[in-house]
Amino acid sequence: MNRKLIHYFLLIFLGVALSSCGTVRKSSTIDRSTSSGRVDGRVLETGMASWYGPNFHGLATANGETYNMNDLTAAHKTLPFNTVVKVENTDNGKSVVVRINDRGPYVGNRIIDLSRKSAETVDMIDTGTANVRILLVEEGDRPITSENSSSRESFTVQLASFNSEHEARVHSDKINGSRVEQISVSGRVVYRVYYGTYNNIDDARRAQSLLSNRGFTGFVKQAEN
Is 0.85 topped by the overall pTM? Predict the structure, then answer.
């Protein structure tokens, strides 16, 4: 093999090596350097935190990931997925930065469910629950609003989704009490037809069933997400 050919293959090898070094992979955990206290500053919520661990380890989270109790993650009822928050245990002053990738908790008045690792970090394993303050570090898949920043849930019935506002309004006109909302999905604007707003999921399901009996298909969704 002559020198020119050797030089050619060497350049190809270096190019591949350098390009692979530039590949960035999204981690399912929080970089511990983010726990330095650099936060957005907004206090989103205060209340009771709990934690969940072995019984859910390896199962799917609400956003489709696999729950790992050793990751710095948490479940919240309404915050958009991949929102990063700082959770301060106001009982002892310890804090942890976590990423929201699951929904819950659905027990009593608890506002956030920490992974086992996160609970260990703020020293609440033995107590099971703790009084906490939640501060925003980084917005996730959707902007933080007054509707999704707390654990107060509301539900609606989604009846249709259109690319055209005109089509959406034509469909909405057929259903008394429905409304059209403009939504941004992955940078694309769509127009959805919704019916009603309900404080609990059972009322929303009853409304959806009545609509179905009238020939209008749809599904119940959490209004904040």
Answer: no
